[in-house]
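thought: fold this chain, then report.
action: predict
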Amino acid sequence: MANLWDDIAKTIREGVDAVVEKTEELTKMGRIKVDILNIKRNIEKSFTELGGKVYHLLAEKNQTTVAEDKAVKEIIECIKLLEKELEAKNAELQAVRKKESEAAASKAKAAAPAAAKAGKPKKTTASKGTTSAKKTAPKKAAGGEKKDTGTK
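observation:
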């Protein structure tokens, strides 16, 4: 009896460990996705700021070479850095996804022999070809009346 409880406790521990591991992976992926969204939002803000600055230089100051403006250069550098961060975060997300899929594949591979071993049918008396006849009552029609099934 103690062996049964030990097996149950071990199975529960393994299940909890698997849930904790999966939760950690999903949390990590969620954090990376939030970081990606924040970087994209910052890129959009920088483009908006760049557009405003270029408009200001062209329309209000009649400056034809905006590429020489210090503020424009700073915004462009900021966008370049953000794009590099975005690439790095996307690579990190892909690495986590790859690691997760590899872990799932190895777990499935490890579980396959155990499942095949556990899935062998046991011989029972019912498997010797004997079947029990099941009696069924006549079906009722929608109005509550018995439906004629053609058998008496």
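thought: worth noting. The mean pLDDT is 82.
final: tokens above.
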